[in-house]
Amino acid sequence: MHDEIKEVLISEEVLQEKIKDLGKQLSEDYQDRFPLVVGVLKGALPFMADLIKRMDIHLEIDLMAVSSYGASTVSSGEVKIIKDLDTSLEGRDVIIVEDIIDSGLTLSYLVQLFKTRNANSVKIVTLLDKPTGRKVDIKPDLTGFIVPDAFVVGYGLDYIERYRNLPYIGVLKPEVYEK
Ligand SMILES: O=P(O)(O)OC[C@H]1O[C@H](OP(=O)(O)OP(=O)(O)O)[C@H](O)[C@@H]1O
Ligand code: HPA
Q: According to its UniProt record, what is one Pfam family this protein matches (predicted)?
């Protein structure tokens, strides 16, 4: 699996240091509140798991599964809800946890949806931001890293469901896409 990686963009150590900082920041921002931390599956799973362990406050978690990429490296533009939340958002301070914002279509859909469910506030924390991919105007409140205009994999991010279990973020060798 590792021999299919052309370049490591963000190492495991650098990822974990940043997640520690993001957790500390969120702990300060949400002190004395009881936020609902919503992970967007499947990609956000490793990030969410590590981030909440770095948040030193009471919080609640829930998970939503959405998909718009399927087997492609380009968004279909249609966000499909695979699994909805179990928790009511009425009056809640919601923190959406994402692995990447690329076109922005997934998050703009979710932010709109959560507002119609009467959340008190909706903030976005994303591990990665790829501003060159943007199709709709959406900005995260907290970002781990800006990534270049390339399809990245690892630490939750997949190509045809593979590579999510890499502990780092990398770029695949071109021949992987030719298979
Ligand atoms: O800003 P966008 O262009 O919408 O891209 C970001 C979304 O795309 C990926 O999810 P995907 O739909 O591939 O589902 P997955 O998390 O199950 O891999 C990623 O995890 C984000 O949720
Ligand atoms: O660069 C990416 N890699 C994996 N999944 C993604 N979903 C949006 N952009 C990406």
A: Pribosyltran
Q: With a threshold of 0.95, tell me whether the complex ipTM lies above it.
A: yes
Residue 20 maps to a domain: yes
Q: How many domains does the chain have?
A: 1
Please give all residues whose beta carbon lies within 6 A of any atom in ligand 1, as ranges. Answer: 40, 42-43, 67-69, 75, 98-106, 158
Q: Are strands 169-172 and 5-10 parallel, antiparallel or unpaired?
A: antiparallel
pLDDT-derived band at 4 (thresholds 50, 70, 90) equals very high
Tell me, yes or no, if 99 is annotated catalytic.
no
Residue 160 lies in a domain: no
> Contact at 8 Å (CB) between 122 and 138?
no
pTM higher than the cut 0.90: yes
Q: Is 149 exposed, middle or buried (0-12, 13-18, 19+ CB in 10 A)?
A: exposed
Protein residue closest via CA to atom 6 of ligand 2 = 157
Give residue 72 CA to ligand 2 midpoint distance, Å.
9
Q: Ligand 2 centre and the CA of 57: distance in Å? A: 30
**Is residue 127 in a domain?**
yes
